[in-house]
Amino acid sequence: MHKVIFDTDPGVDDAIALYFALAHPSIEVLGITTTFGNVHVHQAAANALYLTRLAGHRIPVTQGIASPWVQPPGTPPAFIHGDDGLGNLPRRLPCPDALDPRPSAQFIVDTVRAHPHEVSLVAVGPLGNLALALKLAPDIASLVRQVIVMGGAALEPGNVSPVAEANIWNDPHAADIVFGAGWPITMVGLDVTHQVVTELVLFEQLAQLHRHPATDTLLHAVQFYCQFYSGLHKHRFATPGCFAHDLLAFMVLVQPDWFGTESGVVRVVTEGIAKGQTVLRRRDFVDYPQSGWETQRPRTLVCMEVDAQACVDLFVQTLARPWMR
Length: 325
Ligand code: RIB
Ligand code: CA
Fold this sequence. Notes:
Elements lengths: L1 E7 L3 H12 L3 E8 L6 H14 L6 E2 L15 H4 L22 H11 L4 E5 L4 H9 L9 E5 L15 H5 L1 H8 L5 E4 L1 H4 L3 E3 H11 L2 H20 L8 E3 L3 H8 L4 E6 L1 E3 L9 E3 L19 E7 L1 H12 L6
Parallel strand pairs: 1-2, 1-4, 2-3, 4-5, 5-6, 6-12
Antiparallel strand pairs: 7-8, 9-12, 10-11
Helix pairs in contact: 1-10, 1-11, 4-5, 5-7, 9-10
Bound molecules: alpha-D-ribofuranose and calcium ion.
């Protein structure tokens, strides 16, 4: 079993990833920590709690960091995920459960210390909760099993600027701390997430199969999200579909062999026109004179290639299981 803390800003693709994690027989979600990003953090926490309970799973959900490490807060992208982060749901069923009262960073510290060398942090939003957890308890860097980050781009163009991916751009200072922490870390960025398309018809088929409020809600959210992606990437989508970015972080967790990787130092540009760019040092044999690029700095495993069809097939097979309680 993979014991996981899921750090997330739901968000439609976050919801897809969450339901994959809940449905996969080898993933045990110990807790969900939330951050600002696709929505404000209180909405992210409410969405995580709602999605989880709707599917009948009782997992601790915490509210985390509300704004970036250094830069001023931005405006959530309602045009991608809806005002509520889930494609503007017309109504919600009652959800009487409460959040776990701990701040997300404290939950991460407590849980990693309770399960030394067992916990994978799967982070698919801006990285402030992980940076704060490191600040509270630097020892967790040597106690986690691994960190998997959906964010960044090594060679692929960005999605909020020509060089920056959204999660990293939203909090570049936190991201640079996380990539430099010295824990085993894998970057699942646009280099691979832009290779994997999940078509709307798959979500329609899953909703039809289960006839359950959880998969109905997911379908509603994905319909909204697909309008954005199918409009933006007309050349990529023959039929309505989307990039399910955050899902790929869990694919790396359970099927790392499906990914081609490079290992190197990753630094994050924190200001200026290239803010949020993740720069991968690809040539260790060059002795760069600029400081900050020393070869002995912590390295990141960066995903560059992916077996896209295998990922889509596993997603569908997993969500087709009887996973809702
Ligand atoms: O760039 C993709 C990432 O930004 C995903 O995590 C998505 O949820 C959005 O926040
Ligand atoms: Ca996300």
